[in-house]
Structure formats: structure tokens, C-alpha cells
Amino acid sequence: MILRTAVACLAAAMIMPAAPPASEVSRPKAGEVEILKSSELKPGMTGTAWTVFTGSDAEPVPVEIIGLWKNAWGPKQDIILAKLGGKAARTNVAGGMSGSPVYVDGKLIGAIALRISVFSPDAICGITPIELMLEIKDFDESRPADARVPGKVQARADLPIPSKLLAQAVAAGASPALLQQNPILVPVETPLAFSGFHEDALREFAPMFRQLGISVVQGGASGALAGSKPAPGWQNALRPGDAVAGVLVSGDMSVTGLGTVTYNDGKRVLAFGHPFFNLGPVEMPMSKGEVLMVLSSQFQPNKFANATEIVGALKQDRHSGVMGVLGEEAKMIPVSVNVRSFAESNAVRNEKRLKFNVFVQQKWTPYLMMLTLFNSLSGLNDMAEEMTYRLSGQVELGGNQKLSLSTMQAPGEMPVPAPMLLAGWWGDKFNRLFGNAVKTPELKSVNVTIDLLPERRVASIENAWVASSEVAAGAEVPVKVFLRPYRGERLEREFNVKIPAGLPKGDYKVVLSDAGTLNRMQTAASSMSRFIDLQQTVSLINQERSNNKLYVSLVQARPTLYVEDKTMPSVPASVLNVMQAGRTGGSRSYLTSAETAQEQMSIPFDYVINGSYSLKLTVK
After folding, report:
1. Element at 427 (helix H, strand E)
2. Is the pLDDT score of 82 beyond 60?
3. The model's pTM
4. Which CATH code of 2.160.20.10, 2.30.30.240, 3.40.630.30, 2.40.10.10 fits the domain covering 31-133?
């Protein structure tokens, strides 16, 4: 038995490429390098790959060429199959190794980028030929049709969630696609390291990334990752074999995608050997990395690493790899979040301030805003089940435009926690900004304050009373409204409604309503237009009423016209008839309402207001 085991071990050692002695290999440097085309490779050739196992210094890994797998990566896109030895024989092809350069006879042949099976006893990898990676520098500004973005995840139609963005995130966790086996040839996972994120945030959002083929791990980042400006010494950074990361979020929390540098000509850097998100042209900060360890696993081997300091910007994210430029700066959106916890006495008892930066991309920015806001609320000792969240925010845009946001979110009967609903509401505002069909928004800064109130604060409009139903134009009418809160004494408010002078005689209504009742028609009108521009989008969001106010409107039986971000009250019937007769299938769509509601006032509450109530008035 012992003899058979010894023979087996000897045989394995004979077929396993041995690690080359350190004295016989020299670590590759930045600069032009001679390449060996894949067509010149022969089975049995041996070479060396370079990757980081611990720290920041790359180590040699012996490689044996198995052969050329024709058209495995696409039409006329071959993959080099190889077997790894040394430390990689134990770790297998781990997430974060993608991009590790492979040399044969001192010539660069490509980057480790794919693996065949997570359960194979052999560390078999697929190598993207360097010829395919060098093509990246010649690409134009076109964007791939198969980019991996949150919008690719389909929401379940039966999930009663009011936010499209939120529905996609929730649906990702229950998608049957997660149960399907991976194909035999898959890109090595790009570990997306979350630093400063709580378990709740990772549990809620990780399924979205997994559906997009991204491996989620808990990671770390140094304080040097706080901004997007390249750190001193960037000129000497990212030698072939070094760890490199694309930065989606930096600061008090960070999200970074780790890979390995394949090629560095002194200015441009190629890495990964496969796409990150396949976004095409990007502006994403690029950082160095420090590897803590490589987790050996038959199921999901991964590098655990910290992103360290920014040294440039990724410019291209393509099918055969990513390309970055050293010394370049990619602008990010600075975000400031202030979370305050209130006691029963309405005094602030705790406060937490967070500052971070978010990657700019029309699909990913809204999702990252949603993720970071939810994480800002997770893991607080002040949190409780019966808690209400009050949000107020300011978004500064280019062109001296500003966005003012305000809402409250209380727990209810929906199968989604209140912080997640609040994060979905927040993310949807940015989804609308980036979703306009005319211009990409320039976000200069985002500031948001979230107050944690120690009870469920929801109130429904129950009843109302008017002193007299017959009034004169120009008079002030006393009105009382009664609201029923969740588990509390009935709320009562008194106020006067001013009847406009010169109002024609007739029947009218005073409508006491929540924000949704007044927002509904305008929201529907804006969704019908295909070409709402950025300025109109900002105007529409700023016009939206807040759900913690009660709105008082005087309603008369005259039509209102809603066109994009404009509301035209009391439109004469003759004008409306002409417009309807001339309606075409053009982009300028509109909606009409049979009534005109003139908003008279709003009454602030520290509650989420629901419902509506009408009072009849006759003007004599």
C-alpha cells in the first residue's frame, strides 16, 4: 500500500510542472516586450506565469502548454490551454489570478483568464492570447451590447415592490438561473471586494453581482483610496504580475474588483484577460493591490486582498481584457451621508458621518447609490423593527442645477425592510437622471441626511370638516382635518383655505390628500415622453411632493393638461379639442385630466401621510 502511494506521488510529480528555481527566472518589468503568437505554440512547451500570492510581489508559477483550443472564446478567438504547477497546483485557478502574464522562452504569450472546472484536481487554465489583448488599444468609443449591468437582471412580475431598481435587486436573489451549472469554460471570477460593508448589505445585494458573473468577497482598502487622484510614484506602479483593481466605490466604504497586470508599456496597462463588466469605454479609478492570501478551495478559490492607492484610470473594459492609463484621473461623485438617531424626547442621541466616492456610469451609478445608502443604515445599534426613516438630500449638478429630495419611509406589510425601500427610492432618483435620453448628467456632489425616528410614524387621512359649505369668493374658510396614526391618538389640524378672489360661482371641492395623489398624473405624463431631457428631469423631480406633508387643493371641473415637466391648469375646451384633433405619433405626448387642482398649501407632519378626503364647497 505504501509502495503504491509512493509510486503514485512520483508519477504525479513527473507530470506536474515544477516551480522554476528563483535563480533561473527574473521578474518581468514594465516596457515593451517580445511576444509569442499562439499559432507558434506546441503542446508540451513549458513557461512561467507571474502572480501575487502574498503581499505585493509577484511569484513565478510553472506552466505546461496543453494545446490550442480553437474558437473557444468566439469566432477566430482561440484559447491556450495550460496546466499550472507550484503553489497554483494547490490553490487551483483562483479568483484574482485573471490577467497573470504567461511567458514561454522569455516571450509573452497571454494572460491566465479562464478555468475549466472548479472541482478538477488539476489546475487547468485558459490563457487569453496577448494578440487579442493588444487589440484593445485600437477600439473606438462604441459600447458592447452585452455589457454586464444591473439592468440585465429581470424583476419578477409578481413582486409587489414600487421601485424598478429595487425589484431587480430583490429578484436576483430568487432567480432560478443561480441554480444552473456553469459552462465548462468560464472566466476566472473577478473578486469584487467590499470593505466597510455590513453582512446585511452583502446578503441583500450579492445575488445581483453573482448573476452578472461577479464573485463577492469581504475585503479591505487603505486610506489612500479615499480619492481618485493618482498617488505619488504612480510612474513605477503595476509591473506585470502585480495585483490591480478597478474602483467602484472609495472612502469610508469601498468596492473594488481585483485582477492581475498582464502588460505595461510604461504608460498603458493591460489586465484581466477577460472583461470586468464589458462596458466598453469607461472612466474608472485604477489602484494597486496587496494580497493577504489565496484561499485554496475546490469550489471557489479566491484571492483576499486590499486595494491600496490610486495610480491611474481604466479606460477600456472589453471582451479580452481591460486597459488602463497610469497617471490619469477618473472623476468620481463625492457623497456625504449623515445618519442621526433620535430619542423619544426628539433629541439627537447618536450621529454618524460617512464620506465616500462613487464610480460614474449610467447603469452602475444608481445601483451603487442604492447599495451605499442601504449600507449606511445597516449595522447600527440604534436600529429597531418599528422605526421610521426621514431623508433629506441635495444633489448638485453641472450648469448650476440642484436637486432637492425629501421623503419618509416607515415599516409596513411589504416583504421588504424599510431601509431597503428607502434605498430603492433613493437609487431611482439617480436612475431617472442617468436615464434621460438627451444628456449625461454631471453630478458634482451628493449630500444626504437620514434621521432614525424611534417608532412607526404613519398616519391616514380619516375625516375632515368645513365650517360652511357655502362661501364667497375672496373669503377664508376654516377647515379641520383628522388623521389616524398607527397606534396613537387621533391627530387634528385646523387651518384656513383662501378662496381666490374673482372665482366664478359654482361647485368646487377642497381635496386633502397625500403626495402620491398629486404626483400621479404628472409622473404618468413624463413617462409617456421618449425625449425628456436632463433639465426637464431635474424639474420634474423637484416638483414632486413629499410624503410627509398633507396637501390642500381647490378642485374645479376644468381640464388640466400635463406635458413633460409642465402642468397647464384650466385649459379651455376649445384649445383642448384642437390639440387632441392634431395629436400625432410624435415624441411630444401629453395627458389630460377632467379637473384642475390648484394647490393652496401644504401642512408638514412628522408622519408618512396616506389617503385623501374631499369637501364640497359652493361659491355664491
Report:
1. helix 418-435
2. yes
3. 0.84
4. 2.40.10.10
